[in-house]
Design brief:
Blueprint (H helix, E strand, L loop, with lengths): L1 E6 L10 H13 L4 E6 H13 L3 H10 L5 H5 L1 H4 L7 H8 L5 H27 L4 E5 L5 H14 L4 E5 L5 H10 L5 E3 L3 H11 L17 E5 L2 E4 L18 H8 L11 E3 L2 E2 L2 H5 L15 E2 L2 H15 L3 E4 L12 H6 L6 E5 L6 H9 L2 E5 L7 H7 L5 H13 L3 E2 L3 E3 L10 H6 L12 E3 L2 E2 L3 H4 L8 E3 L2 H5 L4 H7 L2 E4 L6 H17 L5 E5 L4 E5 L8 E4 L2 H9 L6 H11 L5 H13 L3 E4 L2 E4 L2 E2 L1 H15 L19
Parallel strand pairs: 1-2, 1-3, 3-4, 4-5, 8-11, 11-12, 12-13, 13-14, 15-16, 20-25
Antiparallel strand pairs: 5-6, 6-7, 9-10, 17-19, 18-19, 20-21, 21-22, 23-24
Helix pairs in contact: 1-10, 7-8, 9-21, 23-24
Length: 645
């Protein structure tokens, strides 16, 4: 028996497929007699684009990263799916005229014309190898390319079994795909390690010890004659120990032969945990991630660490991307602490929660975490409460400040459009954004999308009762609305929350932040009896400032964390009889005018980052106190460590 696993466009070519890496490893371990090949057709198509049209990384990235909410990548392959190079060209051109540039439009139209040729050549190559089963993984904009390939394979080799799995096949989506595209023999819903392995076992020769009945494979969609049958999902999610480390050899073998290998530096994908420990308790209202598997599970620290170090050593790659939806907090003192001791410097991207403390952020940085996605999404506590995020606006700003102090890049979006929000949740924040221009800016503002599996989708009474499949699906599929409603992940719905005028002001303010970031600085040095501050943010004229009043120094220290007025007044009056509430209020008003603090929901926080030399000295001293390893800092000479109170 021979199996071919395929990763279609528009999966990123900078990373191997975690899903196929895991499945190929699982099949090899379970059925050593079965030959398994992994085809990185996304790299094949990048080569095709480069050869046919001289396209580059930016063009591929438009489809892979930027056009998901417009469906351009899926539409490109609709011509191959329906064997029609004119498939809805007029509708696409009209709908996209004001959404994409003329150059992007031309690229879409040209690739749409040539996609059938690529699919045919790829299908013929795969069929020529004689696989018994071909499986395609589908996430984001891999759906139509995968369907087009499986359709053509079935035409060329009707006996070959075809399978689709991945996030686009979860829940009713997998049922709709199987029901509407009869050239797909099976769809795998939910976690594939168990279901796909049992599907393979069902196709073993009669009499084989491991052969199973296909009707009992959990989460599988299959056909009984002409009827699509959907087996129930398993009520037992995979334990972390059942998830093997991925095999990425096929990816690196293919990249070495690629014309476009210079487009990106490879990044290894790792997975320490599945699900979301916050979402188990408080599912963020807009979030559709995790689908049918929210339960949080994490690998043992030893297993995860060994996986990371083994992959780094095998492939000589130091860049890692962790796909975990949220950091397993115990990894800070186990996995990440051990990575900090490793003899080489990894560069890791991770998703975290934005209420992390400075010491925890420093632990991330010491382990080589260089980029984080903390799920900030908004700076209004009231709106964050509507989202059920479990953080405040000031905690989000604290994270941005402490990440900047530690040299972490922060990926975040500013979301709006939540039922119940008002302009009062945005205008006071917008007025204070110039004070934050030295902190990592958001990538922009956007109205939330209604996503399948989110509380907003599952509970229409929360504010989005009227919905229909997102407009992109009608440009792509030849299906009735009732079927699109089951296949779609994104949905059109009435706008909620702030009006467009306020949204435009927010977008302009965030754009100004992004433009000023590289020129802006607000940092401080703590000299014990005084605080020295330096500023270069364009919105504030002062360039240096000294805080030498003992009460002011104490209040500045206190504002490392969000504090209420009453808390600050208590500190001030305990320190000096000369201070009272009006004087504290006047000081805070002055600090607000100078852009030293951010005030929101009755809490204030200072926004100055630690001076680099002071930060390194503090980390060294804390490390020495705890007996832990010092950071591997490549310095020409030791910085002059300043006294820290």
């Amino acid at each position: 028996m021979k199996i071919t696993l395929v990763s279609m466009p528009w999966a990123s070519i900078a990373t191997p497929s975690l899903a196929l890496g895991i499945l190929s490893k699982k099949i090899a371990a379970t059925f050593p007699e079965i030959e398994t090949e992994t085809v990185y057709a996304n790299i094949d198509f990048a080569d095709w684009m480069h050869h046919q049209g001289g396209y580059g990384a930016v063009d591929f990235g438009f489809f892979s990263l930027q056009s998901y909410f417009m469906g351009c990548g899926d539409w490109v392959f609709s011509s191959a799916l329906y064997d029609d190079t004119s498939w809805r060209v007029e509708e696409f051109t009209r709908e996209m005229a004001d959404r994409i540039s003329a150059e992007q439009m031309e690229t879409c139209l040209r690739l749409h014309r040539t996609a059938p040729g690529f699919i045919d050549a790829l299908a013929r190559r795969i069929v020529a190898d004689g696989p018994d089963l071909v499986g395609a993984t589908s996430t984001f904009q891999q759906n139509v390319a995968s369907l087009a390939l499986l359709r053509r394979i079935k035409e060329l080799s009707p006996a070959t079994k075809t399978v689709m799995g991945g996030a686009n096949c979860d829940g009713s989506q997998g049922e709709a795909l199987h029901r509407n595209f009869d050239f797909v023999d099976y769809t795998v819903r939910g976690e594939g390690e168990r279901t796909f392995t049992q599907l393979v076992a069902a196709h073993l020769p009669d009499g084989a010890d491991d052969k199973v009945d296909i009707s009992g494979v959990p989460g599988l969609c299959w056909r009984d004659g002409d009827t699509s049958v959907s087996n129930p999902l398993s009520d037992r999610l995979l334990a972390p120990g059942e998830i093997p480390s991925p095999d990425y050899d096929a990816y690196f073998d293919r990249m070495r032969r690629s014309r476009v290998q210079s487009w990106f530096e490879p990044v290894l994908v790792v997975e320490g945990a599945r699900g979301c420990w916050w979402g188990e308790k408080h599912h963020c209202t807009f979030c559709g991630l995790n689908g049918s598997a929210m339960t949080f599970r994490s690998k043992s620290p030893h297993t995860y660490l060994e996986e990371i170090l083994t992959l780094a050593g095998r492939h000589r790659v130091l860049d890692f991307y962790a796909v975990d939806n949220i950091l397993e907090m115990s990894y800070l003192d186990s996995v990440l602490a051990k990575i900090a001791e490793a003899p080489f410097d990894l560069r890791i991207q991770y998703e975290v929660k934005s209420n992390m403390k400075l010491s925890q952020i420093a632990q991330l940085r010491a382990a080589g975490v260089v980029s984080v996605q903390p799920g900030i999404e908004n700076l209004s506590t009231r709106v964050l409460g509507i989202m059920d995020k479990g953080v405040s606006g000031t905690l989000n700003v604290r994270f941005l400040r402490d990440a900047e102090s530690n040299g972490l890049s922060v990926a975040w979006n500013y979301l709006y459009g939540f039922p119940g929000e008002t302009q009062a949740d945005y205008l006071p924040v917008i007025e204070q954004l110039p004070a934050l221009h030295h902190l990592h800016p958001s990538s922009g503002a956007g109205r939330i999308a209604l996503e399948r599996f989110s509380p907003y989708f599952d509970r229409p009474e929360l504010g989005f009762a009227d919905r229909s499949p997102h407009w992109q699906y009608e440009l792509i599929y030849d299906l009735p609305d009732t079927e699109l409603a089951d296949l779609a992940y994104l949905f059109d719905t009435d706008d909620r929350g702030i009006e467009s005028t306020v949204a435009d002001r927010l977008d302009e303010a965030l754009q100004e932040w992004s433009e000023n970031y590289v020129h802006s600085r607000l940092s401080y040095v703590d000299l014990g009896d005084r605080i020295e501050l330096v500023n270069s943010r364009p919105g504030f004229t002062w360039r240096s400032m000294t805080l030498d009043d003992p009460v002011e120094v104490e209040l500045f220290h206190a504002l490392h964390d969000p504090r209420s007025l009453d808390q600050l007044v208590g500190r001030a009056t305990r320190r000096s009889d000369a201070w009272d509430k009006p004087r504290v209020e006047a000081l805070l008003a002055d600090w607000c005018r100078q852009g030293l603090i951010f005030v929101e929901d009755g809490r204030a926080l200072h926004v100055a980052t630690e001076d680099e030399n002071q930060l390194m000295c503090r980390i060294r001293r804390e490390s020495q106190k705890s007996g832990g390893p010092e950071l591997a800092l490549e310095l020409a000479e030791e910085p002059a460590c300043l006294t820290i109170s």
